[in-house]
User: Fold Proline--tRNA ligase from Anaerosacchariphilus hominis.
Amino acid sequence: MAKEKKLVEEITSMDVDFAQWYTDVVKKAELTDYTSVKGCMVIKPAGYAIWENIQKELDRRFKETGVENVYLPMLIPESLLQKEKDHVEGFAPEVAWVTYGGLEPLQERMCIRPTSETLFCDFYSKEIQSYRDLPKVYNQWCSVMRWEKTTRPFLRSREFLWQEGHTAHATAEEAEARTQQMLNVYADFCEEVLAMPVIRGRKTDKEKFAGAEATYTIEALMHDGKALQSGTSHNFGDGFAKAFGIQYTAKDNTLQYVHQTSWGMTTRLIGAIIMVHGDNSGLVLPPRIAPTQVMVIPIAQHKEGVLDKAYELKSALLDAGFKVKVDDSDKSPGWKFSEQEMKGIPVRIEIGPKDIEANQAVIVRRDTREKIVVALPELAEKVGEVLTTMQSDMLERARKHRDSHTYDATTYEEFVKTINEKPGFVRAMWCGDQACEDKIKEDTTATSRCMPFKQDHIADTCVCCGKPAKALVYWGKAY
Amino acid sequence: MAKEKKLVEEITSMDVDFAQWYTDVVKKAELTDYTSVKGCMVIKPAGYAIWENIQKELDRRFKETGVENVYLPMLIPESLLQKEKDHVEGFAPEVAWVTYGGLEPLQERMCIRPTSETLFCDFYSKEIQSYRDLPKVYNQWCSVMRWEKTTRPFLRSREFLWQEGHTAHATAEEAEARTQQMLNVYADFCEEVLAMPVIRGRKTDKEKFAGAEATYTIEALMHDGKALQSGTSHNFGDGFAKAFGIQYTAKDNTLQYVHQTSWGMTTRLIGAIIMVHGDNSGLVLPPRIAPTQVMVIPIAQHKEGVLDKAYELKSALLDAGFKVKVDDSDKSPGWKFSEQEMKGIPVRIEIGPKDIEANQAVIVRRDTREKIVVALPELAEKVGEVLTTMQSDMLERARKHRDSHTYDATTYEEFVKTINEKPGFVRAMWCGDQACEDKIKEDTTATSRCMPFKQDHIADTCVCCGKPAKALVYWGKAY
Assistant:
């Protein structure tokens, strides 16, 4: 058994060193690999298949709200990037610049898109003339590049994959409604598919997107008590429209500026899945996002009839609509169990000669390790039940973890002590002044995560300066 | 009617100026738009939806052969690009170079991938140790960049979307089998889904991919008689493996080099669809690739019950599994017909008060303009029949066009005369000497498209030099 345990033993315990645990899981679950390109990663089949499932689910939800997909260039001429002042200040320091095309220096250098507001604005300024051309509700799936100094797989890398939606509307109200609609699409997706509860709220001015009037965010709590911004949706008002001259002729024949939004989710979500659900045996994938939901593991597979029965179960479960594989490699069952657990496959089915004789199999849940002996005729039905239960249990467990790691503070002393000693969110009132955010960050490294849509009034005064409070804020140390 | 015909009148006739016709269709069917980024295009919703369907169909076919998707970085360090001599010579003159990351000059410049052989080799050199790690059959969907001087939407642009498969195998035989297998996947896809017949064959050494031992290709004939290379599959032998040190320990404990392949298809296919099937009214999409298969167009829609009936038909056809829209805009029916034709939607259904009274509708096929009056209870069944027939008719029509524009030549005089005067393929024997390819290109601008798998022996001697013939070659002027 020593050799069989090797896979698991090689992972650092999450209680000893969470960052190292994360790195170990990413590697051992074969999600990514390092490359010769500093700060960039290879996303391996097991990792990319999760991204494909995220894409499929999100894309379907987008299209149900009328989104259409497009593709814009990956390069942005410098003059275009500079058209909106706040935006260029936010992004220019961290872009990669192309200065040569073939053997010739470029007349104007171009950056690899860090995000595509400027390109969409340039596009919309040509496409939109009349109110009949509105709204435009476009999205693209692509990769973007930001020249980060320190990187970690999925969480922060120089290149990452994402979707970026960019919309243009006739009125401010319509833009605001779309901004919130997409945030809710994100939040519902996280909760229903990733089993990851999120706080929906608005960013403070300090934390909002470069060039936005308002940024909405969903914030999730990782197992180590740190926050992860998991998706954002921005309302630009008519700021970009004015900078890029995006105007339309309204029904009353007046010339109006459009109102715009953008919203994005990234491969960072895979990092969130790992850090919300993983354990000391590796990854734990929610059934609805798992590329393989069931691994059938034959016991004593050299014995007559065992492998055949394993294939028969696979085939029956495939027919029932599950994503199933058989591990028929020449490894030992114990080794296969460890691998299946490391890779986070939600359910394994053990089937050996004794099971076959008794016309049964053993279902083992990845999250609780609960073993369920089931008669073969009921296997598919039971697997369905187990996957459904596991999905909702995972959400419930994550919600409990989040709620039990969320604290209220009404004095600054209490606030600092809590945020430094208890991993998690701290809820506290804020006056609306950036100086308090700056002080809190300097004193504790924590940042304002969001002003939740669901506002409670837990005190009358700002936790930091004591002036009258304007909003409840979730504070936390964040990835 | 004058206004209603405007859309169509604005297209140049394909018989007058095919290149202008192509540009007009791309614009009027709203497939792409120009951008501020020279040589790059915006792919608009109508164009991108075709690409999504191509992706879905190809990806499914790939996965059925065991392909797994991954994602590698978009940047290649110069030293990595230079590792394989032929490859760097082929690509270095046409790549875009990143020289700055943020405000800092890079220590080593990196190019935006023109193709990713070098990155996959770097990855495989770490991933592959033992015969147990083989084969690797990976693919990625991404964009690549080649700094072309003259560009045209879909056919040649600086950035384009594609898939690139990269595989590593234990033996030369297995690599060769995979190379041909993927070419056949491509060819079957083109014929079954795009209704586009292709010639399957091998490229001459002059025309093969930089660094490949053998390149296989599928060649299609456009309506104007020019050839379009529509997909390629390369066998690299162990050339890259030796340059990058990709070795594995075989079962007999010896150290061996892997054998590799790569294969790709691009957004160029959308250009092929336009130029194989389009007509003077615009685009004609094969039903199996059309994002919208049926457009329901109400006649006299202001009359009571007409719009309701149109929505009812849409809903019934959606339930039957078709991709359907209703054009309920305030344009005239004639204008709507022109738009539906321009966009290549395979079938339109006209439904007006008289039809409703007679409990019927009119189906109009986009390709033949055949009108079919059908009783409403049989509508879904009939639409299915029409789409199926149209799909196979389109393939047959394209095949007839191709075959009737394919000529044999046995003397050089005949060859030159045919290729200059008759648009299409010319089949002629070749000695195997590149000098003859060079002379033919210089004399006629035609190139060797491929040595077809199906070899006929139409003469004993090379059509150019008169030496003994080695192979039948398809020659043509090409995009």
